Structures are given as C-alpha cells and as structure tokens.
Amino acid sequence: MSTTLSAASAKPRHKRVLPGFGLSLGSSLFFISLILLLPMTGLVMQTANMGWSEYWYVITDERVVASYKVTIWAAVIASVFNGLFGLLLAWVLVRYEFPGKRILDALVDLPFALPTAVAGITLATLYAENGWYGQLLAELGIKVAYTPLGIVVAMSFTSIPFVVRTVQPVLEELAPEEEEAGITLGASDWSVFRRIILPSLWPALVTGVALSFTRSLGEFGAVIFVAGNMPYISEITSLMIFVRLQEFDFPAASAIASVVLIASLLLLFAINIWQARYLKRLHGR
Amino acid sequence: MSIRLENISKTFGQFQALSPLSLNIDEGEMIGLLGPSGSGKTTLLRIIAGLEGADSGRIQFGERDVTNLHVRDRHVGFVFQNYALFRHMTVADNVAFGLEVMDAKQRPNKAEIQQRVKHLLEMVQLGHLANRYPSQLSGGQKQRIALARALATKPDVLLLDEPFGALDAKVRKELRRWLRSLHDEIGFTSVFVTHDQEEALELSDRVVVMSNGHIEQVDEPAQLYAQPNSRFVFDFLGNVNVFDGKLEQSRLNNEQAWISAPSSDVPLNNGQLYIRSHELALHTDATAVANLPLRVVAVNPIGPEVRVELEPHEWQSEQIWEADLSHADYARNPVKRGEIVFAEPKNAYFFREGSQQAPEQVSWDSASQPVKAK
Amino acid sequence: MSIRLENISKTFGQFQALSPLSLNIDEGEMIGLLGPSGSGKTTLLRIIAGLEGADSGRIQFGERDVTNLHVRDRHVGFVFQNYALFRHMTVADNVAFGLEVMDAKQRPNKAEIQQRVKHLLEMVQLGHLANRYPSQLSGGQKQRIALARALATKPDVLLLDEPFGALDAKVRKELRRWLRSLHDEIGFTSVFVTHDQEEALELSDRVVVMSNGHIEQVDEPAQLYAQPNSRFVFDFLGNVNVFDGKLEQSRLNNEQAWISAPSSDVPLNNGQLYIRSHELALHTDATAVANLPLRVVAVNPIGPEVRVELEPHEWQSEQIWEADLSHADYARNPVKRGEIVFAEPKNAYFFREGSQQAPEQVSWDSASQPVKAK
Amino acid sequence: ADQTILNTSYDIARELFASYNPVFQKHWEEKTGQTVEIKQSHAGSSKQARSILQGLPADVVTFNQVTDVQILADRGKLVAEDWKQKLPNNSSPYYSTTAFLVRKGNPKNIHDWGDLAKEDVGLVFPNPKTSGNGRYTYLAALGYAQDQFGQDNTDAQEGFLKTFLANVSVFDTGGRGATTTFVERGIGDVLITFESEVNNIRQQYGVDDYEVVVPKTSILAEFPVAVVERNSKKNGTLDVSTEYLSYLYSEESQRLLASFNYRVHNDVVKAEVADRFPEVKLLTVEEIAGGWPQAMQNIFANGKQLDQLQRR
Amino acid sequence: MASGQRHQQRVGDRPAVKYTLIGLTLVLTAVLLVVPLISIFQQAFVDGLAVYWDSLGDPDTLHAIGLTMFVALLTVPINLVFGVLLAWSVTRFEFPGRKLLMTLMDIPFAVSPVVAGLLYLLLYGNNGWIGAWLFEHDLQLMFAWPGIVMVTVFVTCPFVARELIPLMQQQGREDEEAAVILGASGWQLFRRVTLPNIKWALLYGVILTNARAVGEFGAVSVVSGNIRGETNTLPLHIQLLYEDYQATAAFASASLLAVIALITLIFKAFIEWRQERAHKAESTH
Ligand SMILES: Nc1ncnc2c1ncn2[C@@H]1O[C@H](COP(=O)(O)OP(=O)(O)OP(=O)(O)O)[C@@H](O)[C@H]1O
Ligand SMILES: Nc1ncnc2c1ncn2[C@@H]1O[C@H](COP(=O)(O)OP(=O)(O)OP(=O)(O)O)[C@@H](O)[C@H]1O
Ligand SMILES: [Mg+2]
Ligand SMILES: [Mg+2]
C-alpha cells in the first residue's frame, strides 16, 4: 500500500480528450490579437497622446453630448422596435407554414448585404415628403426623413437581422411541453406566451436587441442620408467622429470613438454575463 | 368524473397511431395504460387531455361531451413525462401558475393563492423548497412538484405520462405509493401511462394493455395476470416459456420432448403451451408429466429467487427457457451450468393452433390457483 | 486485459465526485457499477476510458500503466448511454468508422473492412439494416449498432454506460442476455453502469455498489445479496423492512411490539433488524418469535407474488412495511385491507446500534440459506 | 504605358478629369514620345488628404480645398512648402464661386444673400463641418455681412448669420447629398453650392425647373492643384506630374474646364464664355477671414464662431 | 358524431391569431424591407433596360465587381477557418477567459465600420508604428487590396463563429468523444464527424459573411484610396457614381448587390429545403 502511495500521489497529467485545444485556442487568440486587438492599439495610442483633461473636454463637448443623446435615444427606440418586429418575424418564421416563407426568411438578411449608403439613400427617397411613404405620412402630419425619426428608421433597417437571427434558433429548440403544461393549467394563449415562452426567449431576445443597439450606435452610412444632421437635433455621434476626421483631429475622433466602443463592449459583456447567469438558473449548470 | 371514449382514432400522416377504440373509466378509478413503445399510449392520453385532436370519435367527461372542447376548458391535470416544469419560475410560482391565470372572477386573491400553494407543497412534502428553481431539484422532487402543480386547480381528472419513468427504483416506489394514497384521499379520476408492468399492476385499479394502437385487454391486475386473453398480453406481462407441440398419443410432442395431457379437462390439439418461469420445477429425470430435457446455460441468484436459464436439448424452441426457483427449491436440487435437467410444468396456458381465442388455463397437479381478488 | 485502479479521485470544482477509490478487475470479467443517480458511476467509467482525467491515482491495463495515455491509445470500446451514433452516417459506415480511421499501416483494405462490418452486423443480428440511418432505428437497434461499432476495433476492454437504460423491459432482457453471451464468447473485459439492481445482479460477475463517490461494496451477486455490508447496500438492493428495537428482557422492543432473540448465536443489543419482504410470514396472531401487529394497507397481486403493504399498529417505523407472499401462502391466509395481522420474520440482518460494521445475519427457524455459488 | 501617375481628386471631378486625361496623354506623347497612364481617385478632398498622409501614393492632387493641400505640406512635408507659388493664380488653374439654385419662377424672390435671412426661406447647403463646399458658403455669407454691415459691426453680422443658419432645413455631409435633398426630395427653397455645380444640376435635372441666381458679392473658390513631391520623386514621375498640372493652364485645357462650368483665367477663353459667367464681386478668403488657417481656427474649429452661432 | 376537427394545441395556432400575425409580418416586411428593395430596382430601371445594361457593362463597374468578388473570395475562407477554430476552442474546452473571448469576438459589431477602417489606417498607415516600418520596406497594405481584405475580415469575422457556437454547444461533445475512442485523429474527427453535423450552420455563416463582405462600405472606404479601376469596390463605386450624378448607374450597381445577396440567400433556402425533404423521405420509409 504505502509503496504505491508515492506513485499514486503524483497528479496524473491528463491529456485533453478532444484534439486541437492548442491549435484552435492558439490560432483563435492569434487571430483575435492580430485582427481585433492590434488595431485597437491605434485607438489607444491616439487617445493616449491627449491628457486626461483634454480627453474629457473632447468627449464632453456640448454638441458631442447632444449627439450622444440623440444617438442613444434613436438606438434605443430602433432596437426596441427591432425587438418587437424581430420577435414577430422569428415567431412567424418558426411557427407557421405559408407560401413564400423561405423568401421571407431570405429577405431578413437583405440589410446586411446592402451597402449602408444605398440603404440610406433609398430610405431617404421613400420617406422624403415627396416619396412613397413620405406623402402618406405627411397627410398624417408625420415627418420622418430629416428628423430624428429618420435616424430611427435607418437604424432599425440596418440592424433587424440581429434580433431575428438570435431569436429564431432558440424558438425552434423550444420544447412544446412547457407550453402545453401552461395550457392544461387553463392559461390563455397570451398568458402562456407572456409568462412561459417569453421568459425562455429572454436571453436570446436581449442579446439580439443589444447587438442591434450597438450596431445602431455605430451606424453612419445609412443614417446621415435621412437624418437631416441639424446641430443638437439630429446629429449622431458617428457624424461627430466624422467631423473630427475631416478636421484631421485624429485624437479627438479616436476619443469619441473610444467612448462608443467602451460603452458597447461593456454592454455586450454585461449581457454575456447576465445571460450566463440566467441560463444557469434555467439549466442548472 | 367518469370518462367515456367512443371510437377514438388517430392517424399521423399515413400512420395509424390509434385504431378506433372505446374505453369507459369510472369516477375515481385509477387506470394504467400499459404497452410497448410506440403502441399509442401517449397519443391516447393526449387525446383525452385535448392536447391532440382525435380524427373520429367522441369523448365524454361525466355527462358532458368534451370532444370539441379546448384543452383549457377541459379542466384536467396533466403531468408530463419529463415534468415540463417552468424553468424560469420558482417552485412556488410553478404551483401557483394554474391559480394565477384563472379568470378574474374565479381567481382566489393573493393571500389565498399563497395559502393554497403552501398547503400543496406541504402535501407533497416539499414545503421547504418553495423558493428553489426546478434545475435545483432532484428528479423525484421535480416529479412531486409537477404533481402539485397539476393538482393546484383541483382537476377532476389527472393524466400522467410515464410519471416515474426517469427515476431510481427506490424513489419510484416511494412516489408510486404516495400517488396511490393521494388518489385515494382526494378521489380524482386518474389515467397514467407506463411501460413497466410491475408499476401498472401495483398501482392501477384496472390496466389497459395496448399494442399497435389497439386495446388488447382491459382488466383488473389480478384478472389480467390470471387470464391474459392473447399471446401479446401474455408475452408482455413477464417472462414466459413457450412449448410448441404436436398432439400425438394424447401427448404434446416436440421432437424428443413431450408434455402429457394436463389433469384439467381440456380437449387437446396441436398448439402452444405458455408456461411462466416460476411455474416450472426442475428435476434430474423426466417425470410422468413431462419429458423436457434442457441444458443449464446460466444460474443467477437474483434476490429472493434463483433464475436458471435453460437451452432445449434435442428439441426446438425459439427462445431460451427460464425457470425462477425459490432458494429453497434450488437448494434441493442445485443444478450447475452445463448439466442436463428435466423441467416439469405446474400450470400453463394453452393456445390452440389456428385459434384467435383466449388461451385455456391448464394444470397438472394441485398447484394453488393465483388469487383473483384485490 | 485486467484493469487496476489505484486511489482514483476526481473533483468538479468544489464537488468531490469520486473519493479516492481502488478496484481490481480481472481479465475477462464483467463488472457492473451499481448506484443511485449522482453516485459517480459515469465519472468512474469515463476515467477508465480516459475521457476524463483523474485528479490523483493510477490506472493500469494489464501490466501497462495507462494513467497518462490518451483515450485514443487506450484502445477501449465505449458505448454511450444515448448511443452517440453518427447521425449522418449509415449503420454500416458507423460500424466501419473505427476501422477506417486506423493508421494506414494497420488499416485493413476496403474489402476486408466490408467483410468485417458485415460480420459484425450479422453478429448483432442487424445485417439487413446496413444502409439505414440511425434516425430510422428503434432504441434497441441503435443500442446494438453502438455495440457493434465499439467492438469493431476488437478492444480488450468494453465500457458501457447504462446500455439498456432507455429500453423496454422485454427488449432490455433480450439484449442483456445477448451481451452476456457475446461477452462469454469473445472474452473481453467489460464494465457497465446501471442503476437497475436486477440488471446488475443478473449480468455481472461482480457488482460494484457505489454511493457518493465511494465504493460501498464489491462482490459477486449472490454474495452481495447474502451479505450486504452496509445499510446503504441493503437499502439499495430491494425492499427491506426495518425494525428499530431496544433490548429488554432478551427481546427487541418497540413500544407494544417485540421480536424475540433469534435462534442463531448472536449476542443481542439495541439496534435495527433489517427484514426482507419475502422473509416475513403473516399470521392472525402473535407467535413465539414475534409480536408485530400491522394493519393491512393494500394487497397487490403482482405476477407470481402477492405484495401486502402494512402499517405498524401501536409501534413505530419510519416506513411502510411490505410482505411478499407466494400465491400459495396468501391463499392459506388471505388477509384483507384494514385487517390487523401479525408478522413473523424468518431471516434478518442485525445492525448493532452505534456500530459501523457489517450486519450480523440472524434467523429464527430453519429457513433455507440463500445460495452462494454461481 | 511608360509611366503611371495617380491623380487624387475631389468626388465630383470624375467626368472633368475623364475628359482632361486623354488630352494630356496626347500632349505628353507629342512632347516626349512617352505614354502615360493616369489613374484617378475620387472622394471627399479632406478624406483624400487624410489618405495621402497615411500613405496613398498619389502623384498629384487636384482638390477643391486649399486647406487640404496645405495640410499635406504642413503635416507630412509631402508637398512643397511654397506650393502656392509653383503655378499661376495661387496654383489654382480654375475657380468658381458660390451661387444659388432656386425653384422655377423664383417664388421666394431670392436675389442676394440678404434674401436668405428672410423668414420662411428654407436653405439647403452642406455642413461646413464636413464639407469644403459648406465652408465656402458660410464664408461667402460672412463676406456679404461684413460688406453689408461694415467690418466692425460684428453684432449685426452675427445677427444675420444666426438667422441664415437657422433657416437651414437640412445639413447634408456633402454637396451631392445637399443637391439630392433639394432636387429629389423637394426640401428647401434655395440650394447654395458652387456655381459650377449649379449649372451641372440644371443640366441634370431640367433647365426649366430651376433658376440660377448669382449674388452680387460672393467668394472666390479656388481649386488648388499640387504635385505630391515626396511620392512622385519616389515614383520617378516628378516631370510628368508637374507637366500634368501646368498643362491645365493651356488654352485647350482651359476651354475644356470652362465647358464644365468653371471660371478660368485664360483671357481668350474668358472672352469666349463671358456670357455664361455674370460679373460678381469676388471676395477672397484672405479678405473675409484673413486666410484659411485663420478661418479654420477662428470660425470652424470646435467651439468657435460657427458653433457659437449654431448653439441653441 | 364523428368529428374530424383538429385541436389547436400550441400557442398562437388559432387561425385568427395565426393569420393576423402572418399578415402583420408580411405587411411590415413589405413596408420595411420589400419596398426599399423594389425602390432600388425602380431607380435602376428608370431609364430603361438598355441604360441598365450599359451601366453595368462599364469597365470601371466591371472591375469593381471583380474586385468585390476577389475580396469576398479571400475574406470568406479566412473567416471560415477562424470561425471554426474559435467555435471549436470555445465549445469543446473549458478554460479561464472563455467568456471574455466570446465578448471580444463581438468587437466588430460594437465598432462603427468607419472607425474600424480608421483603426487600421492608424496602425498600418504611414504614421502608424507598423505602417512606418511597412513604408520603409516599401510594402503597400493600405490603399491597396490587402488593406481592403483586412478590414473586410475585421468587419465580418464574428458571423461564422456566432452561427456555430450555439449549435455546437447544444450538440455537445459526445459524438466527437465516440470518434476519439474509436481512434480517429484530429483531422479525421473534424472532417468525418464534426463537419457533417455543423455544415448547415457553417454554410449559413458563410453566406452571411459573404453578404456582408460584398456589401461593406464604411470600413473599406477609409482604407481603399478610392482609385478607380484599382481599389474601388462595388459599394464604393456605387457611392462614386451617385456623387457624380449618375444615379441610374449607381442604383443599377446597387441592384446587382441586392441580387447577389438574394440569390445566395435563396440558394441557401433551396438546399436547406431539399435536405429537409430528403431527410423526411428517409425517415418515413
Ligand atoms: N406528432 C406525431 N407525428 C407523427 N407520428 C407520431 C406523432 N406522435 C406520435 N407518433 C407516432 O405514433 C405512434 C404512437 O406514439 P405514442 O407516442 O403514442 O407511443 P407511446 O405508446 O407513448 O410510446 P412510448 O412508450 O415510446 O412513449 C408512434 O409510432 C409514433 O411514432
Ligand atoms: N462535468 C461536470 N461538472 C460538474 N459536476 C459534474 C460533472 N460531471 C459530473 N458531475 C457531478 O458529479 C457527480 C457524479 O456524476 P456521475 O455522472 O458520475 O453520476 P452517475 O452515477 O453516473 O449518475 P446517473 O445515474 O444520474 O448517471 C454528480 O453529482 C454530478 O452532478
Ligand atoms: Mg409515450
Ligand atoms: Mg451516469
């Protein structure tokens, strides 16, 4: 017994069962460093050239702050709208059979494929007061193009696929039993949806909305054509970055970009963590 | 609440999952649906609940025709095979759900609901887990919560799909007993699905044996065991040895082996004798009753019994034979692997060749009859 | 190939899934790992296979230390609980996989592989399904394909995780028997996980009973049944009735009830008597051996036996008692629900109060001893 | 081709240089017997300058912003310090001015800058923050105000500019966007842009639907050109690059430029096209703001005059 | 007595609800996605078919199409390999920092494309610390096709991994473990077991990557240098045409992009459908 003890107490070196840990993690890290992180150093170095107070001054400039407000509000509205519309689209695509469903499914990805500027010009054409939609809306007294509402339209157009594509697979995987359990307990369709299905979709839906939101924060090409770009009213943050670039003020551009970037990353990270917690509660692991 | 099914049938695409079948269930009865996988048990249960629509036929709950009634309005309790607890709600919220979604008119107020949930959780002995999430429960606990949830709205009918399928033998037994006592106490009508014969026999007032979308037999457990009305039921209710014999000289012969005409007064014919494994005695020589030489393949002591596996010697049988002996019997004649032994049946069921009728029960000596009463 | 585990332990995060344990398995043995859910059976099996690394300890296959050997090089066959068949490959391709991925040097040529696959499929009696996809098979068929796939590379060690867990009782029995005969024929060493005691007892040469990451007992089935060395093993291997008694006047007393000192020569003490349910006789009056009044709660004829559930009358027991009677015994005294009857133990196991040792076997009359040999 | 040069230009000069390049190629071949290939890059001129600073290997720049050339000299020493003196007219072979496009019949009766600060006049011009075109517009308005209210009456000037800015309906980021907004979306009453553009637009969208109004005073908008010496030296194309720009001053070239609605300096050509270019009093940036560096610093920089006037 | 009626059992299967939701989706999709698409074609064909073909036949347009294809052709395989490696490392192994890695992967969604381009420019441009070195060694990355490929890779790199990770998480490791036990090497394991299981998600990721790579404007425009017939991609070319009052030609090219996107997406829907049908046929006989 005691003779084998020394041999046994040495911790065995267990090789990973599945191959490719070193290769896959190594090359992923290499790739992420090279493609994603290395360029970030440019941002850091540009902003590092400024002092803290100058940085603060640049990112809290009155007009820039106004643009944060506009951008965030528009992005919030657009992503909430996308949350609703995306959920509806995903639901209809998963739950029902109807002719043309596959084409509808394909159309969802259209906004990814169109250059954003084309999207912007097209939306401006449609929503301008002499456009197809603009005329109708004008009769109702609603102006979309060249108002903050235009920003919302452009943002939701460019980011709708995010919600659909994150919710869809989860909805597909949803087992019918919980739903049926709800119904046998006498719940109406609406209660079942709200109290049983929706909570299961939450993590995916929130992730989709968050992706849609961050994408909207950064959107430029599509927005500027419909925004009107009036100071303090319809100027978005991306435009402020663009202006700084026009002025060859790279540090200032980097500073404002870093604000958006940090905010987006924090949001995404927070959501990843929240989602892991939520899922842990659901699945117990 | 009694349940009456008339000519219920169901097809999925081309596949006939249920051939038209009828079944009456009395108020307060506990019915077990027993059958092999794919025999349509779940489908039938779901049709009763209203989760699936029948293609034809009629369903009555008591006096009420519920055929076209929505699940929601049938007011049944349903316990799903894998529990289907709401994962994002605490145990208490799960149980409260059925109460909270009631019409505003009927719905008890908050305090009442809380009271009721507390009472239900105590009834299933899990009061201390009210604030846990389902993922933090063991299988047996989940099962009990699923039951409590189904019972919260006081349904008249409780339907359970393999309620104990995924549980350990021990937990299973405990829950089974608990369910029975709950049933007796509250008095709802219940139907449960199982593919475990022991469970069906132990738990139900009557067992419905299904195969291929048909009902094969509906009977009380003892009756079912004593008088299976088809080969299928026979086969399904525990191990059985089959002797395929030709009538010659008032003996059933199979090559070198034979079994003499039984003492009971049944006209013999060509046909098959079904002999349960605990109704076989093993001897070192042929007896007057039978000459069934078998080679011992394995001897396995399984708890209170010794199970001897036997291979026909110089005659034919499709399957290995099995004899279940008490330790005492075994001690009297401790057969060894490889030996040739001679089996003698005590009781058997005779399936007449070419006949579709229920088998005749036959016996050779004064072996006790199985009990029939509950 | 023999297997030798020494001081194997494993933690997941904070959780000790296996406390250091050792186990020797002989060449050609078939070992059953039995235990409740979460006791570490799967973990142990995966560590033997090399799918999981142990935190400490050593594993030897024959003379070879394989502790640090990669799964690939351990050359074991593994059958997963839910089969893990490759969904996109036909049955034949699944079976051929292990052969096709061999080193070019060792790999048989195309024709040989085909030949071998054909042979394996015939061995598992599924030659006609070679071109189907896994989704088109029933559970039992899938299981057999998983076995054929694992055996294709002729492993010396076969590991199976609940190989029959998801199957019908009938199919299960058939496959079980088939696996045993395959094992005896080919002669690999095998370890299988189960939580079905009957399966473990019937199939294995030796059974390893686990609980909470410990090995509770390793023994041959008969031995295990005859001499369980702990309450846990006892409890786990079938139903048991517990009488908690205080020694007074050389009787074990529990309120109004008592059991006299057994005939065997064991010094009594306070402690618990464990009595298996088929070792209880029921009488209409107290006997010299015992005065155990019980109220009949239920009488269930379950196949060859009648199971009587009993509730202690004027004494205390944590659980319902159960007596399994033969139909003959029952016919002699056909008790009814609600009646008071008196139980008398034939054999029992005595757990001395405060002692952690194995129980002593005690008996009151000349009841036959269970067999011990296989 | 024996040599290749890259001409980096502003975004709407595509057709202009598409016409000029063959002319020059022919000239160069006649002169030296060599063939030259000319590659074109078009984008906003600030963006182009940025790209060149970061390594776009341009041999010559033909911009619509003096500052964008200047930055090449200041930041990167890519262009000679004295680039303005290398060619006539401040190295600006053609020029234009800021003019108005109004809808048919001039319903709002717009004739001069003063009319733009009237109530209910909607203006469309590019954002001075993002577009050189917009900066010219702003400076022209400032020049008019200085002219009108006197150099020192800054209050009156700013009052005028404030209403002027408040009348803006849409700030597009570039000239083209503003044009689209005005013409295709039907927004605003006046589009303010380069005179050369105004004429292009009329040609594009219909001569009859719009009228051009050239105010009496306006700004001199120069279109500077320069050789990116560091690149062209490296590429060995200094000669052809220099000649590429000088030849813009030839009569043939000037005629070509004029056909694109630019004003030119060549007297012969000037006389030929006099009827198309009304007399305007052209103020220079130097006169209005003391030069581009000062304009950028005191007017357009973050928080300076423009920002102050736009503050709500 | 016999009633063949079907019961509604899943939430939202009641015809009234079902058709309302489908209708609402179709209307919303039509308004938000289809009409903009039609409007692009309308503007492309405004001057007739001949002009449409002419504008597509322009050598600069043809070159832009070629360059765009070329960039997509390089980008897609790079991101394919990276996406698979990343998904493999994240789903098949446990290691500290897994969550962070998954968040980092989302950076491109959080960064505005223009800023993304700027980041590359700041790093690899002449004034960046790598760019200076490149300049000395006469290596032109920015304002040439390598730069375009680099930023396109950046912008599209999350798509494949994002498609694969949830699927591979859900499928678990058991199939692969079975293969390893049977002696499969890493490559055999991947090619013969993993790949067939993930091929649909992979295809979908590739299609999204391709769609986005073909349509990317903002980031590319920063690093391209806009040299006609050399570094102008199709979206840049569209922008240029539009700026140059060639709206019809611009929209013709835009419609081409939309068509490319739609064709790939419908192609995907088609093979999915065939696969599904083949599978159904298999499992029923
Ligand atoms: N939605 C469905 N579509 C097609 N076939 C179905 C469907 N539901 C059930 N079936 C088929 O109907 C038959 C009966 O199924 P059912 O689920 O009722 O069997 P079961 O007796 O409950 O079996 P198990 O013991 O395996 O649960 C099976 O062959 C099954 O494949
Ligand atoms: N990867 C893991 N991470 C954390 N805990 C684990 C992991 N795998 C197993 N465990 C825990 O280790 C314990 C033993 O698990 P194991 O799967 O070996 O049990 P088992 O005996 O096979 O049970 P069952 O009969 O339910 O399959 C359990 O409590 C389980 O929760
Ligand atoms: Mg079922
Ligand atoms: Mg396990």
From TrEMBL, chain A:
Assembly mode: The complex is composed of two ATP-binding proteins (CysA), two transmembrane proteins (CysT and CysW) and a solute-binding protein (CysP).
Superkingdom of origin organism: Bacteria
Native source species: Marinomonas ostreistagni
UniProt entry tagged with the keyword Ion transport: no
Protein name (database record): Sulfate transport system permease protein CysT
Gene name in the database record: cysT
Similarity comment text for this entry: Belongs to the binding-protein-dependent transport system permease family. CysTW subfamily.
Record membrane topology: Multi-pass membrane protein
InterPro entries in the cross-refs: CysT_permease, MetI-like, MetI-like_sf, Sulph_transpt2
Subcellular location: Cell membrane
Residue ranges of the TM segments: 21-45, 72-94, 106-128, 196-214, 220-243, 255-275
Record SUPFAM superfamilies: MetI-like
All copies of domain ABC transmembrane type-1, residue ranges: 68-271
Function: Part of the ABC transporter complex CysAWTP (TC 3.A.1.6.1) involved in sulfate/thiosulfate import. Probably responsible for the translocation of the substrate across the membrane. Part of the ABC transporter complex (TC 3.A.1.6.1) involved in sulfate/thiosulfate import.
Primary location recorded for the protein, binned into one broad class: membrane
NCBIfam families: 3a0106s02, permease_CysT, PRK10971.1
Entry-linked Pfam families: BPD_transp_1
Keywords annotated in UniProt: Membrane, Sulfate transport, Transmembrane, Transmembrane helix, Transport
UniProtKB/TrEMBL annotation, chains B, C:
SMART domains: AAA (SM00382)
InterPro entries: AAA+_ATPase, ABC_SmlMolc_Importer, ABC_transporter-like_ATP-bd, ABC_transporter-like_CS, Mo/tungstate-bd_C_term_dom, P-loop_NTPase, Sulph_transpt1, TOBE-like
Domain ABC transporter: 3-237
Stored Pfam families: ABC_tran, TOBE_3
UniProt keyword annotations, A-Z: ATP-binding, Cell membrane, Membrane, Nucleotide-binding, Sulfate transport, Translocase, Transport
Record PROSITE patterns: ABC_TRANSPORTER_1 (PS00211), ABC_TRANSPORTER_2 (PS50893)
Region (Disordered): 354-374
SUPFAM superfamilies for the chain: MOP-like (SSF50331), P-loop containing nucleoside triphosphate hydrolases (SSF52540)
Protein name: TOBE-like domain-containing protein
Protein species of origin: Marinomonas ostreistagni
From TrEMBL, chain E:
Keyword 4Fe-4S: no
Source taxonomy: Bacteria, Pseudomonadati, Pseudomonadota, Gammaproteobacteria, Oceanospirillales
ABC transmembrane type-1 domain sequence ranges: 65-268
Protein function: Part of the ABC transporter complex CysAWTP (TC 3.A.1.6.1) involved in sulfate/thiosulfate import. Probably responsible for the translocation of the substrate across the membrane.
Keyword GTP-binding: no
Species: Marinomonas ostreistagni
Alphabetically ordered keywords of this record: Membrane, Sulfate transport, Transmembrane, Transmembrane helix, Transport
Xref: Pfam families: BPD_transp_1 (PF00528)
Subcellular location: Cell membrane
PANTHER family given in the database record: SULFATE TRANSPORT SYSTEM PERMEASE PROTEIN (PTHR30406), SULFATE TRANSPORT SYSTEM PERMEASE PROTEIN CYSW (PTHR30406:SF9)
Membrane topology recorded in Swiss-Prot or TrEMBL: Multi-pass membrane protein
Assembly information from the UniProt record: The complex is composed of two ATP-binding proteins (CysA), two transmembrane proteins (CysT and CysW) and a solute-binding protein (CysP).
Name this polypeptide is given: Sulfate ABC transporter permease subunit CysW
Bilayer-spanning residue ranges: 21-41, 61-88, 100-123, 143-161, 201-227, 247-271
SUPFAM superfamilies for this protein: MetI-like
CDD domains hit by this protein: TM_PBP2
